[in-house]
Amino acid sequence: MFDELSDLYQQVILDHCKKPRNFHELPGATVFAQGHNPLCGDQLKLYLRLEGDVIQEASFVGSGCCISKASASLLTDSVKGHTRAEVQAMFDKVHELVTTGKLNGDVGKLAVFAGVYRFPARVKCAILAWHALTAALKGEAAQPVSTETDNPQPGA
Amino acid sequence: MPGFAPAPQSPASPDWAAIRQDFPILNQQIHGHPLVYLDNAATSQKPRSVLDALRKYYEFDNANVHRGIHELSNRATAAYEAARTRAAVFFNARTPDEIIFTRGTTEGVNLVARSWGEKFIGKGDGILITEMEHHSNLVPWQMLAAKTGARLHFLPVQGDGGLLDLSRLEEQLSGVKLLALTHISNSLGTVNPVAEICALARKHGVTTLVDAAQSAGHRPVDVQEIGCDFLVASSHKMCGPTGFGMLYGRGEILEQTPPFHGGGEMIVTVSYESSTWKSGAHKFEAGTPDMSGAVGFHAAMDYLDQIGRERIARHDQQLGEYAYEQLSGLSGIRLFGPALGRAGLVSFLLPDVHAHDLVMLADQRGVALRGGHHCNQPLMHKLGVESTARASFYFYNTTSEIDTLVEVLKDIRKFFAD
């Protein structure tokens, strides 16, 4: 029906956007972050429970397009059982994958995002959850992570 | 204004199919499908007569305007000022001096906010706008309020139906210096009763600004009939070139309004210490203006009047209502704006399909839509949505294109169905 877009909307992505995994709040979360794309209105909240340096649980809630939802869903599946350093390395690979299409090493199921780089307008959708994640792990999550640079004017 | 009467309209109903052929860009395939251009509220396409006028200007007449002695400069000046006179006729201003050329609607609003607003709006004064304003008719007033200590108030929108709640208008006008509102909502398709609202504002001594970005090319817009003090519009949404627009200002009010930008063209005498400036529209047009823009805008107004703006308005409304009716047949769809008496645009949401995905899939079938907040973030927030998809029409669109839209939306739903 929309064959030309099958690179972008791969079956795995469609499946995760229709039935997102770990799609709930996490009462025992030790780390929390928000991602926001003001241009599309996408909002997402990401929860992590770490024991020591290892992520034991990850979940998210929010709303967004199919790509951003599937990305958050696959992220929460992928980071479980990994350390901060491993997740940072994972982010670097995913970032390169969605911006250039190049797969450097193994990213497991996340390889389904290999087609995103051909649709520049959708790169932000795919990377939003990851930016929220890295900000959370660096402890920079007091403010929501935005896809756009914000310069609030006093009184405006 | 002799010599600039609108071109006479042919008595018969226009041949819309033939008119469509005036737009070369529409005759192409997108991703293997005929282009169905339904993003006219963002920008309209341009007829051949406008493209020819631009080409002719640059091939034969281009030179800098005003104070020129040579032939080309005289021609360019005549063409530029003829466009102003044409705009005065088109919008029924009293004189061409009430027409200021701008870069577009946004610049027009900013000009009024900066030049008129900073002189006449003070601490505690009210600025009344509506909840459906485009960011261009909201942010400049926020900036003015922050600078002057004025208070910003809002006429409320009544839910998805998209009509303004005017029940407390008279009360809300109290203490207000300026009322700024849109003629047609770019996200809801609501047509506001601007003449009635401006009449009431006038009764209370409130200055008025009407944003005609979505209406100027779509229906007759008569500044005297509306009775506003300022009116702004963009050329590119009405078959003209981009980066060009106009601000109407009532003569008396323009006289009291200080200049916007300082520079060449707007002055009479300049010394090292001080300057004096021109009166009328030229006071607000510093620097070399967009001459080709004016020429193209002139051709666009001629073109629209040849078809007839009443006819365009009827056609628009028919397309808008047809689309609303056809789309409402899709189960679970959420439609915004009034069902009847609407402008030729429809915003909607399909259940479980994000507008961003929807617009991308529609594009694969040649259908150009817009998805997002439509520069109406606070309104989207009020309606409890992040974004909507929008189909917006012009006179070259057809009901069969709307049928194509509906078929494509059905396929998009199947694509995202479980």
Description of the molecule:
The complex is a heterodimer of chains A (156) and B (418). Chain A has helices spanning 11-18, 66-79, 84-100, 123-137; strands at residues 31-37, 42-51, 54-63, 145-146. Chain A has 156 residues and is α+β, with helices and mostly antiparallel strands. Chain A has a single domain (3-145), classed as Sufe protein. Chain: A. The termini of chain A are far apart. Chain B has 14 helices and 19 strands. With 418 residues, chain B is α/β, with parallel strands linked by helices. Chain B has helices spanning 16-20, 48-61, 71-90, 105-120, 139-148, 169-172, 194-203, 223-226, 251-256, 291-307, 309-327, 355-364, 377-383, 399-416; strands spanning 29-30, 33-34, 36-37, 99-102, 126-130, 151-155, 157-158, 163-164, 176-182, 207-211, 230-234, 245-249, 267-270, 275-277, 334-336, 345-349, 367-368, 370-372, 388-392. In chain B, the strands form six sheets. Chain B has a seven-stranded mixed β-sheet, with helices on both faces. Chain B has a four-stranded antiparallel β-sheet with strand order 15-16-19-18, covered by helices on one side. In chain B, strands 1-2 form a two-stranded antiparallel ribbon. In chain B, a hairpin with a 2-residue loop joins strand 1 and strand 2 (33-34). The chains are: A alpha+beta (156), B alpha/beta (418). At the A-B interface, helix 1 of A face helix 5, helix 12 and helix 14 of B.
Mean pLDDT of chain A: 87
Shape call of chain A: globular
Helix content of chain B: 25-40%
Q: CATH superfamily of the largest domain in chain B, called what?
A: Type I PLP-dependent aspartate aminotransferase-like (Major domain)
